[in-house]
Write a structure and sequence with these properties.
Phosphatidylserine synthase, mainly alpha, phospholipid metabolism, phospholipid biosynthesis, transmembrane, endoplasmic reticulum, 8 helices
């Protein structure tokens, strides 16, 4: 309990947030995590579920026909996307770029409302979010194919289009709200994000450069040791053979002398 209170106080001091703002951020984070978890469980359930597709006119009841008509608008198949962000340096950097683009799109939502004086209940705000969700699903699918498929050498059309829209929104924000964007950040915020970026860069260098080098070095050392042992054993055998040959030669000389 004391540890929890200490963490809450540290968070409030770090971000200078009031109690109400802190609990809003906490509830928002918990809701996001819960939504991600429920979405993953739903996708896993639907991907493992057995589907029995039949013609609409082969279904006897009207209720079954209506249900079959509604299923017509569901996806044809469920595909699992394994991003494997730490699988390679390209995938790791690609995942980071995707995260930056998504955060930029989310940030544009608030800046556009503030800079262009658009009230939150306006239909443009909701329409923009729906547009980004529908178009973003296709764009992320094309982006994943670019990262995962070695034969894919370029982005898809939707990925290019959505990237252009997000960049255009960012340019609009920078043009009409330059005074807002260029406001200096508080010192503790700069220190916090500087530490995060430093840790991220160090971890990337460690995981993709230092760890493979250590692995290769350990493999080389493991392969060199048996060779050294074989050479040493060969040398010992040569010494033993020379000693045996000398003994045989001495015994032969003694036999000749006795004879």
């Amino acid at each position: 309990m004391q540890c929890t209170k200490f963490c809450i106080r540290s968070f409030r001091i770090l971000f200078r947030a009031s109690t109400a703002e802190f609990f809003r951020m906490l509830v928002g984070s918990c809701c996001n995590l819960l939504g991600i978890w429920l979405g993953m469980k739903t996708i896993n359930y639907l991907s493992m579920k057995h589907y029995y597709w039949r013609g609409m006119w082969n279904i006897p009841s009207y209720r079954g026909k209506l249900r079959r008509a509604m299923l017509q608008f569901t996806p044809h198949r469920w595909t699992d996307f394994d991003w494997r962000p730490t699988g390679s340096l390209k995938r790791w950097l690609g995942t980071l770029v995707l995260g930056v683009v998504i955060l930029t799109a989310e940030l544009n939502t608030f800046y556009l409302k503030f800079v262009l004086w658009v009230p939150p209940p306006h239909f443009l705000c909701l329409g923009r979010l729906i547009f980004l969700i529908l178009m973003g699903a296709t764009a992320i699918r094309e982006y994943f194919e670019y990262l995962d498929d070695p034969k894919c050498k370029r982005f898809g059309r939707q990925a290019w289009m959505l990237s252009s829209i997000i960049i255009t929104e960012l340019l609009i924000v920078m043009k009409f709200g330059w005074d807002v964007v260029t406001k200096p950040f508080p010192k503790h915020i700069c220190i916090f994000w500087s530490l995060i970026l430093t840790c991220l860069i160090l971890w990337t260098f460690w995981h993709f450069y230092v760890v493979p080098w250590l692995f290769r070095w350990s493999r080389v050392s493991n392969t060199v040791e048996p060779v050294d042992e074989a050479i040493q054993n060969h040398r010992l055998k040569k010494v033993e053979n020379s000693v045996v040959s000398r003994r045989n030669a001495k015994s032969a000389v003694k036999l000749l002398n006795h004879s």
